[in-house]
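Anyone have tokens for Proline iminopeptidase-family hydrolase? Sequence:
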Amino acid sequence: MITYKKTLLAAFCMLLLTACKDENSTENKSEDLTAYLKDTTSGIKTGGVQVVQINTPKGKFNVWTKRIGNNPKIKLLLLNGGPGATHEYFECIESFLPAEGIEFIYYDQLGCGNSDNPNDPSLWDLPRFVEEVEQVRQALKLDKDNFYLLGHSWGGILASQYALKYQQNMKGLIISNMMMSAIEYDKYADEVLAKQMDPKVLAKIREIEKNKDFENPQYMELLVPNFYSKHILRLDASKWPEPVNRSFAKINQSLYVTMQGPSEFGLSGKLEKWDITKELPKITVPTLSIGAKYDTMDPEHMKWIATQVRNGTYLYCENGSHMSMYDDQQTYMTGLIKFLKETSK
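Reply: yep, here.
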């Protein structure tokens, strides 16, 4: 009987201890959430929006940023692709990163979205964009103890080029869906992607490009089902997520054509000869390279990047394409979160 009572008492104590732990856990989560959502800015609250004034060779302009969350150890600045798209296609991140307590910052580069558009092609220049990112970093008070930079597509070019010059100010780098050589990208587009297309369709696309008839509506009519829905975002275009459509609808064509060129097969603008493959070993900060099976970028090249930087990790999205944050979402977000948390310790 005494043994039975002792057993009951032990069980009761265990239940009480478990309940206390659960209560403490709930309280800790509540405290974490309160800290994450706390707006630490002074003055009038703007929902995290901060307009940053930047200096350029053509004068001062304003660029738009918006902070989501508050985490002193992880502050992730997002660089959109295009070139010339907007931050908006990154909105899918809101379904994942806040739940993990990760702070991230939307940012429209000059000429994009909510930022000033000076309509001056001389400002569409990679070194100038690098200096712009540095000015934004300083204004947002990001530093080597918390500053992560994620660049997707063209943003990956900008992020990697920034790291080569300013990595002393960084905690980590994410190169998402972007090869480190325009020359290798052109080669992959020509020798791999083009050959996967229906020869008749490809011939018509090549004819339009040869004639520089890029305003021909047939160009996009051919590209959307035969290229975009297979290598940009693997969904029927009618089912593309609204944030993607909203972002792409606002693309700055002047910026896009100046940097990328008018063709979808490779680069022919200012970035045509861009190549930093031999400089990758200079990047010493923790670096995550993200590639996808159906991407416009060679996934083997993306894997190779992780072996060339000093401290690299590779994330492979087996079901993804260029917008793998949408068409292989769980893989992309899980891998991104894992990288951010492990390197922030």
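The chain has a mean pLDDT of 92.
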